[in-house]
């Protein structure tokens, strides 16, 4: 996985509460076993009309949200079932950072394990970001090392993250990579046990 130290990108606003994993990636698309290819189905029931055409009223279909890499959502994002396909779809679509006042615990953990940075900010901070990103192209800078989110209009907020997940995200590691960092120690231990 690619590491995240500083990420600058356009933010898309999704001012909805309780967005569940069934909406993030509907169940009919869970048949694939690889991690790629899910982005085309992200928010499928909201993004597309019944005839398959784009739903022009949906947030991500707005012209100013094309190529956004930061998703700003309202509270309890990622609730519902624990499907790991949800962060896969978010990442495959192009989002690297998701900002919300709160996340479902399993969804949050699935994000960090798959290289997506989930950021919890206060409700008022998220409301400000949602307002700024609602109608126009809006760029944010996320600095994981300093644990800040900022724009060029005076907004700046600090966030917290577990040091373990921070190190993994900054280095682009998954849990297998962390284990392989101890490969010499593991080999030495195996020699002693032989």
TrEMBL record:
Keyword ATP-binding: no
Spans through the membrane: none
Domain of life according to the entry: Bacteria
Reactions catalysed according to its record: (2R,3S)-3-isopropylmalate = (2S)-2-isopropylmalate
Assigned GO CC terms: 3-isopropylmalate dehydratase complex
Listed GO biological process terms: L-leucine biosynthetic process
Entries under SUPFAM superfamilies matching the protein: LeuD/IlvD-like (SSF52016)
Enzyme class, first EC level, given as a word: lyase
Enzyme Commission number: 4.2.1.33
Annotated ranges, domain Aconitase A/isopropylmalate dehydratase small subunit swivel: 5-123
GO molecular function: 3-isopropylmalate dehydratase activity
Key words of the record: Amino-acid biosynthesis, Branched-chain amino acid biosynthesis, Leucine biosynthesis, Lyase
Pathway it works in: Amino-acid biosynthesis; L-leucine biosynthesis; L-leucine from 3-methyl-2-oxobutanoate: step 2/4
Region forming the signal peptide: none
Subunit description: Heterodimer of LeuC and LeuD.
Family per record: Belongs to the LeuD family. LeuD type 1 subfamily.
Record-given protein name: 3-isopropylmalate dehydratase small subunit
Organism: Anaerobacillus alkalilacustris
């Amino acid at each position: 996985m690619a590491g995240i130290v500083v990420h600058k990108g356009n933010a898309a606003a999704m001012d909805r509460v309780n967005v569940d994993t069934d909406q993030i990636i509907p169940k009919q698309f869970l048949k694939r076993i690889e991690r790629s290819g899910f982005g085309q189905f992200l928010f499928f029931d909201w993004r597309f009309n019944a005839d398959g055409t784009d739903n022009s009223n949906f947030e991500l279909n707005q012209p100013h949200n094309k190529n956004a890499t930061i998703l700003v959502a309202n509270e309890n994002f990622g609730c519902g079932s624990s499907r790991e396909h949800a962060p896969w779809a978010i990442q495959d679509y192009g989002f690297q950072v998701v900002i919300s006042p709160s996340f479902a615990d399993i969804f949050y953990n699935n994000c960090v394990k798959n290289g997506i940075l989930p950021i919890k900010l206060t409700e008022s901070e998220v409301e400000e970001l949602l307002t700024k990103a609602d109608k126009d192209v809006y760029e944010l800078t996320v600095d994981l090392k300093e644990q800040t989110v900022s724009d060029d209009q005076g907004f700046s907020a600090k966030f917290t993250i577990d040091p373990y997940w921070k190190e993994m995200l900054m280095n682009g590691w998954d849990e297998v990579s962390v284990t392989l960092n101890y490969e010499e120690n593991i080999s030495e231990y195996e020699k002693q046990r032989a």
